Amino acid sequence: MGAPSHAKLFAHEADALRQVGSPTAPELLQHGTTGGYPFLVLEALHGQTLATWMGTLPDRGAARLPQVRELLAGLCTALERVHSAGLAHRDLKPENIFLREGGTLSLLDFGLARFTGPPRPEGAGVPGEFSVAGERLGTPLYMAPEQCLDAREAGPAADLYALGILLFELLTGAPPFLGSVEEIRHGHVSLRPPSVSGRADVPARLDDVLRRCLAKSPSERFARAADVLDAFEAACHLAGPAVHPASPPVPTPSSLPSAGLRALALLSLRTEVPVDTLLAILEAHGGLLARSWEGGYLALFPEQLSVDAGLRAGILAARRLTDEGPTTAVLHLAELHVRPGVTHPRVAGAALTAPGRWGAGEGLPGELRVTAEALARLGPGTTRVGPGGEHLLVREAVALAPSAEPPPLAGREALLDSLCAEALRSLEAGAPGLCLLTGEVGHGKTRLLDALAARLEAPGRIQVLRLRALPPDTTSPDALLHALRGAAATHPPGSGAAPASSGVQRHVLSRVIAENLRQRAREVPCVLLLDDAHLADPTSLDALEMAALDGTRAPLWICLATHPVLQGMRPHFGERSARVSHATLPPLTPEASRTLLLHLLRPVDLIPEPVLARLEHLAQGVPLSLVELTGALRAAGALRASPGGGWYVAPDALLDVSATPLFDRLAARSLAELPEVHQVLARLCAVIGTEVGVGRVDAAMRHLEAQPGVEPTASWDAGAGLERL
Fold first, then answer.
1. What is the pLDDT of residues 258-274, one digit of tens each?
2. d(CA 308, CA 295)
């Protein structure tokens, strides 16, 4: 039975259960409502879930090959029936797989199922009706890459990916990707799964089977579940079922992560957040509630595979709690004794028995403190100096500060005037406006936004909000959404609901942000400028588009500076807006290039025409190239003082000036801005040469897998890495 608002979800699952039928799914006995509350009546099942059975496996939790083969045969049969019925399950995990008494296997919980085609039950909804833009459906440990990015793309191939995760876990005792929710999603989207034969005593040919099951692209996976079983049997040379796992051995706890004396992250909390919300947030980041007292809690993170991962999980949990309500936290690092437990590790130590010694519970309301022990392991940019010591930043910085000495806007004056006029017209009309400013890398989008913000802010009557989207693998996936929510808030940011992975919640959140932006603009006319919008998450883009919907009223103007790729990803973006405009940043004209060159080469007063022509040719009208080129000239000593006074550009130095040093400087800067793993991958591609393909990069990475110092790159999926570069 569910809440009245869940009526459509119950009807959706009832349609799926009817279409699949028993015994692949529980038999649907009745579906209806009583007193406005929807309900389903299903047959009573006798047996146990696969999760319960897996919990009884001895040692490290791996099953024997004959057991795996029998389970896989049942799973593949069930998936074949589901897919042939025109559905994708989309939440395949041990808890949703039921081993009936007698040997039949059933799938549970079709609430996230997607109808993929005929036959359809009469009166059913639209296929994929519960998948909205940016929605993440499923359980993180078993989610396919397309589910991690956008659930609308998740179909039967996502079930085959989850089947591969289950197969990996049955063979090795653990899923291929572990850690916080963000780390697990990052693994699914970007990392290669470990070799199954390197973790378990199984035939090496199974590596190829798992590699294809867990391919990042749906088209590269097996076409059908039956093909997975055929490939498994061919790799193992197994024939026929073995002993059914209905009579499992006595449970023996697993030992992941390792037991013994370990350094663990601890998080002391004083918060007004409800206990169920607190527990959900801790669980999402691999945390456990160790102790509680009046108004206070002590959490620890024993399930993370490293100290740094544990601290990161504690930071993310603390930040999430501050979004839910007033929270005071202290992050600490201490050595504790860890040993396996039936459901979760058992932990003991002085830091737990006497938390007051390290400052647990201290701090003023809203403070997120860090002890010296934790600070020693945290990287730069995570904390700030505050009263009483180091404090965590409430959220990672995404606001964009203007440059101290910006270069002149040569050749962009008319476009700047046009954008200002468009913004003012929208504000004066009281109708939200949306502008897409597109340009290639280096064409000056950020510089133009700086000038636009300065001009609009100058009269003092308009509030300008500046934000920037960051690459998803360099920050929290929700960093921009958090910042946008804070910018839109007309009340303290911690008083609303925090972003969640549920598609329905994210859709609601985008509508709330949109309305809050309009409400803020009704109080004071507002302009929002977002840089690098092509890197923004779908929920943030939805919120900005909704804020400017036709038929709404507010003095609000939104400008998104973006690479043209955004128009390919969302070709209809902004079409529902009341006032939508597009502007393009082309390369500079020769006249504008010269104006910028003359400024960048100051204090040189007189530059010969051939010198200017050569520099213009090298830069090709790209402002960033002009900046880097003149910087290279200064570094090379090409700007020299004349004996009679003044400065000149040395003609002999120009003989050595080419595009090569320019691109060397740009490459060095671009590499420095990449995460470390991408830096190594880029250098690997440079060594491979001009014919860089997924196959060649993947082969090179596998060759390097055992080499010291390159493990992070060796674990990166070649296709995902090349796409990121």
1. 556 888 999 998 888 88
2. 28
Beta bridge partners of 338: 260, 347
Please choose, from the candidates 537, 536, 557, the residue with its C-alpha nearest in 3D space to the C-alpha of residue 548.
557
- Residue 303's alpha-carbon distances to 192, 313, 325, 336, 338, in angstroms, are 21, 10, 26, 13, 10
Q: At 149, list the tokens.
A: 């990015």
Residue 112 lies in a domain: yes
Q: Is residue 187 part of a domain?
A: yes
**Spatial separation of the C-alpha atoms in residues 594 and 340, rounded to whole Å:** 70
**Distances from the Cα of 710 to the Cα of 702, 715, 716, angstroms:** 11, 9, 10
Q: Which of 95, 94, 184 is nearest to 148 (CA)?
A: 184
Q: Which residues contact 499 (CB under 8 A, 6 or more apart)?
A: 323, 478, 481, 482, 485, 505, 506, 509, 539
pLDDT at 594: 86
Distance between CA atoms of residues 141 and 655, nearest Å: 58
**Is the preceding omega at residue 603 within 30 degrees of 0, hence cis?**
yes
Q: Which residues of 566-595 are buried (b: 16+ CB within 10 A; e: fewer)?
A: bbeebeebbeebbbbbebebebbeeebbbb
Angle at 269 between CA 492 and CA 286, to 5 degrees: 100
Cβ–Cβ contacts within 10 Å for residue 495, how many? 11
Q: What is the CATH number of the domain that holds 309?
A: 3.30.70.1230
What tokens were used for 249?
């051995």
Asked if residue 525 and residue 445 are part of one domain, the reply reads yes
Indicate if the pLDDT at residue 83 is higher than 90.
Answer: yes
* 653 confidence band (pLDDT: 50, 70, 90): low
- Give the C-alpha separation, 683 to 285, whole Å: 33
- Whether 449 and 477 map to the same domain: the answer is yes
- What gap in Å lies between CA 711 and CA 715, rounded to an integer? 6
Same domain, yes or no, for 514 and 658? no
641 in a structural domain: yes
- What is the spatial distance between Cα 192 and Cα 216, in angstroms, rounded to a whole number? 9
Q: Residue with structure tokens 């299903």? A: 42
Place of tokens 């005929």: 118
Residue 649 DSSP code: E
First-to-last C-alpha distance (Å) of the chain: 48
445 & 491 share domain: yes
Look at residue 134 in the predicted model and tell me its pLDDT. 41
Which residue type does 412 have?
Answer: R
How confident is the model over 669-715, as pLDDT tens digits?
667 666 666 777 777 787 787 777 777 877 777 777 666 655 555 56
Residue 498: which pLDDT band, with cuts at 50, 70 and 90? very low
The 10s digit of each residue's pLDDT in 39-70 is 999 999 999 999 889 888 877 788 999 999 99
Q: How many separate domains does the chain show?
A: 5
In the numeric block, the tokens 């693998």 are attached to: 473
Where in the sequence is the domain holding 341, given as residue range(s)?
Answer: 260-360
Do 422 and 565 lie in one domain? The reply is: yes
46 three-state secondary structure: coil
Query: How high is the pLDDT of residue 550?
Result: 85
**Left if phi > 0, otherwise alpha if psi is -120 to 50, otherwise beta: which for 76?**
alpha
Residues 429 and 574 in one domain: yes
Dihedrals phi, psi of 187, to nearest 5 degrees: -60, -45
Q: Give the pLDDT score at 239.
A: 40
Query: What's the pLDDT tens digit per position in 560-574?
Result: 999 998 888 888 888
Pairing of strands 463-468, 383-386: unpaired
With the C-alpha atoms ordered 333, 339, 344, 346, is the resulting torsion angle positive or negative? negative
Distance CA 502, CA 134 (A): 10
If DSSP states are collapsed to H, E and C, what string results for 448-513? HHHHHHHHHHCCCCCEEEEEECCCCCCCCCCHHHHHHHHHHCCCCHHHCCCCCCCHHHHHHHHHHH
| Residue 385: φ, ψ to 5° | -80, 130
